[in-house]
Amino acid sequence: MKLAKWDPFREMEDMLDPYSKSTEWPFRGGKDLNTKGADWAPRVDISETDDSFDIKAEVPGIKIEDVKINVEDHVLNITGENKLEKEEKGKKFHRIERFYGSFSRSFTLPENVEEEKIAAAFKDGLLTLTIPKTEIKKPKSIEIKVK
User: Fold this and answer.
1) How far is the C-alpha of 40 from the C-alpha of 36, rounded, in Å?
2) What element of type H or E holds 79?
3) Exposed/middle/buried for 137, CB within 10 Å: 0-12, 13-18, 19+?
4) Handedness of CA 124, 62, 19, 21 (dihedral sign)
5) In this structure, what CATH number is given to the domain that contains residue 37?
6) How many CB atoms neighbour CB 50 within 10 A?
7) How far is the C-alpha of 99 from the C-alpha of 22, rounded, in Å?
């Protein structure tokens, strides 16, 4: 039998795990998502190739008309809303675990991207953004002669 060192903090995290996942407690690195007062934030994967940065955001059950994407001051913003079904007569909910309400994610873009050429695609609840790269502009050096 192997003995394990008791970690009271780990035990508390295990006990609060169901709550920390849904409320984004700081134990799990939550609340560092840049959400600007939104009710929830979609999970994203960000990857990079030689030609572009790619962002894939999970927005299941949301219509593309309810999603807005814009770039302002070198910050990419993804906002939208997941609307709760209206309660119908004869239908009662026993559990609601999905996130509803407005959502928002913001990402600061690097200097070497072409903001005007950002492409977005939406399929099966996955929003895919392709952000093309440009050449990094080298700083211009000007020599000034002292007289």
Assistant:
1) 10
2) strand 75-82
3) exposed
4) positive
5) 2.60.40.790
6) 5
7) 9
Please give the backbone phi and psi of residue 5, each rounded to the nearest 5 degrees, phi first. -75, 130
Give percent of the chain above pLDDT 90.
36
**Domain containing 116: what range?**
32-85+98-135
Q: Per-residue pLDDT tens for 90-136?
A: 777 777 777 788 899 999 998 889 999 999 999 998 999 999 999 87
What are residue 106's DSSP bridge partners? 77
- List the structure tokens of 105: 């994610």
Beta pairing class for 75-82 and 101-108 = antiparallel
The distance from CA 66 to its chain's CA centroid, rounded to whole angstroms, is 16
Domain count, the chain: 1
The residue assigned the tokens 């079904």 is 85
How big is the chain, counted in residues?
147
